[in-house]
Specification:
This protein has about 270 residues and is of the alpha/beta class. The protein is about 50% helix and about 15% strand. α2 links the parallel β1 and β2.
């Protein structure tokens, strides 16, 4: 598709006076049939959904999402399945923002041009490749741009002004601000410090700035939503899959959790 849909999502949220809820699940977790239902359930309550491309060595992810990748790969999930799931979600939710998130090995093995073509055809709006920094973007930038896909880049608490500018120059869609110097699922950092950094990035960028890593509770989501354009919730949602004693309960638990998060990011002080 094009980066226009992401822009429309953030504009709509701004008009409604709220932050966007950006939700994550790993494709194929715990298996393809269940993953399809869970992604559709989460999409119902989200503004943007990140669909994780399972990988054997997800180095930026904590134990919860690492385990999700392991379950998905054990279930036989292939990149073609990721595209098929993306297409299913797109058909059900035409206005939803969809971002594919993962590591460089998958698109590199396919070839970035082929990957971008298939991702766009499936209905993705953007791609977040965790281990390709802005400086190395020549390997994928043209392919993503040729197929109308945003290249979403990460910034962190240690990002210098030079690096912020680099991300603003080479990135598109939105800036993903990692709230802590660590892996996904860790405890969120000091909220005042996060706000200070987000405000600083906003002063340097015209793109929306979204905050992720460490948002586990509706209260945290609410606090982050007061100063960010989007709140990313990942490990919290994924944890429902691992914790469910009865797989039949996962969908209901995920739906209830997503509704709580959606209400939290929409609430005003």
């Amino acid at each position: 598709m094009s980066t226009g849909r992401l822009t429309q999502v953030f504009e709509q949220c701004k008009q409604e006076g709220r932050s966007a809820l950006i939700s994550y699940l790993t494709a194929g977790d715990p298996n393809l049939a269940s993953s399809r239902e869970l992604l559709l359930t989460l999409a119902e309550h989200s503004d943007i959904i990140e669909i994780g491309m399972p990988f054997s060595d997800p180095m930026a992810d904590g134990p919860v999402i690492q385990a999700a990748s392991e379950r998905a790969l054990a279930a036989g999930t292939h990149i073609s399945d990721v595209f098929a799931l993306t297409s299913t979600v797109r058909q059900a939710y035409p206005d939803l923002g969809i971002v594919l998130m993962g590591y460089a090995n998958v698109p590199y093995t396919m070839g970035f041009e082929a990957f971008a073509e298939k991702a766009s055809a499936a209905g993705a709006d953007g791609v977040l490749i965790v281990d390709i920094p802005p400086e190395e973007g020549a390997i994928c930038d043209d392919a993503l741009k040729n197929h109308g896909l945003a290249r979403i880049l990460l910034l962190s608490p240690t990002s210098t002004d030079e690096r912020i500018q680099l991300a603003c120059t080479h990135g598109s869609g939105f800036i993903y601000y990692v709230s802590l110097a660590g892996i996904t699922g860790a405890d969120i950092g000091d909220m005042a410090e996060i706000k200070c950094k987000v405000d600083h990035i906003k002063a340097m960028s015209e793109m929306p700035v979204c905050v992720g890593f460490g948002v586990k509770t509706p209260a945290q989501a609410h606090d982050v939503a007061q100063f960010s354009d989007g709140v990313v919730v990942g490990s919290h949602f994924v944890s429902h899959i691992a914790q469910a004693a009865d797989p039949a309960n996962i969908k209901a638990a995920l739906s209830a959790s997503a509704q709580q998060m959606r209400q939290a990011v929409a609430a005003h002080e």
